[in-house]
Amino acid sequence: MALDTRPLDVLADFPAIPAGWAYLDTAATSQKPKPVLDAINRAYGETYATVHRGVYQRSADMTLAYEAARKRVAAFIGGREEEVVFVRGATEGINLVAQCWAETQLKPGDRILLSALEHHSNIVPWQMAAEKVGAAIDVIPLTADQRIDLEAMAAILTPAHKLVALAHVSNVLGSVLDAKRATELAHGVGAKILLDGCQAVPRLPVNVAEIGCDFYVFSGHKLYGPTGIGVLWGRYELLDAMPPYQGGGSMIDRVTFERTTYAPPPGRFEAGTPHIVGVVGLHAAIDYVDSIGLNRIHTHETALVTQAREALGQVNSVRLFGPADSAGIVSFAVEGVHPHDVATILDEGNVAIRAGHHCAQPLMDVLGVPATARASFGVYNGAADIAALVKGVERVTRIFG
Fold first, then answer.
1. Is 334 helix (H, G, I), strand (E, B) or coil?
2. Which of 34, 93, 305, 313 could form a disulfide with 232 if both were Cys (CB 3.0 to 4.6 A apart)?
3. Torsion 119-125-128-133 (CA) sign
């Protein structure tokens, strides 16, 4: 079947986007479609109950809905449901692996490999773990077109490297990692690999089994779902060998004052009452994305990136970052203008972008700028948003020219 390359026309599904407002900050957080809002409202207003504990029917029904969402997530990313851990977001997922895997498996002299474009959430937890165990961190440089340099990665890796942690898609540059190749390189020296999929899962088909990675994390709120919910996927044998992240209810097998035994994964890592409605909302978000199709979403966003880069490239004093085929993200700078001023002026024209270091200060150092302006696209964006963006940037150049 031929791929449908028509522009998406789903703006009406997003009630929080008023007419004339160009929302171009999806890489930070996505707006929510009606099916997700409806699912959340039903869960709180009609079917709400706790899960895993009640013997009454509504609690049993909500437990079924909660676990159905786990099964849905697993199918969405090509994993098994017992390998899906619900967390608050990708940040918590990475911290969980850092504390429960890295801090228990690494020893003095071991090494962790990151890249120059990582989000702080995929840097700081590894630094904290490395400091505790006496490990060291190495950094993969970028290619000339600002991708993770896999040739350099191959040259850096040694048997001392026990963990590699990389962004599947850069939150600043939009560059897409060849995740399967990176995984093969890591496994070639016996290292485990974690992939930060926050910017990938809303834009690209992801299959962790085909990639072959060991851990994969993403956040629901970037996937058109609610805030406060995310996913850690891990190979079951790795999760099963890891100690709990937190202690409390639900994650136990048996508790006495002498000792406690723990539930098997994933329950072992889900202490306390979970974000029940967040999980239900995430299920609805995945259904919504699948109803459009990730291949079609990627085609749509690729077209928007191409349009935006071509139009911005014609504006005097605009510098573009990232590769031409970036996934849904265009970062840029206007010569002589701080990105915060760019964003403020754009906001006056009802265009919402992100400005700053994007939680990637080491990358800003590599790029040689204190910050960038970033336009990022979603299923609700179209040509009119690009036009408004370019019009706003042209106004910036006139004001500061």
1. strand
2. 93
3. negative
Distances (CA, A) of 9 to 12, 31, 37, 395: 8, 15, 19, 28
The span from the CA of 286 to the CA of 84, in Å, is 15
Model pTM greater than 0.90? yes
Write the pLDDT tens digit of every residue in 282-308: 999 999 999 999 999 999 999 999 999
- Give the H/E segment covering residue 282: helix 276-292
Position of tokens 């490990």? 135
Q: At what angle do helices 124-133 and 90-97 cross, to 10 degrees?
A: 20
Q: How many CB atoms lie within 10 A of CB 401?
A: 11
pLDDT in tens, 75-129: 999 999 999 999 999 999 999 999 999 999 999 999 999 999 999 999 999 999 9
Instruction: Locate 241 and state its tokens.
Output: 């060998």
Say what the pLDDT of residue 2 is: 56
Please state the length of the chain: 401
- Three-class HEC string of 269-336: HCCCCCCHHHHHHHHHHHHHHHHHCHHHHHHHHHHHHHHHHHHHHCCCCEEEECCCCCCCEEEEEECC
**Mean pLDDT value of segment 353-378:** 97
Edge-to-edge strands, sheet with 372-376: 318-321, 329-334, 372-376, 354-356
Of the candidates 100, 198, 213, 359, the residue annotated as catalytic is 359
Distance of CA 363 to the CA centre of its chain: 17
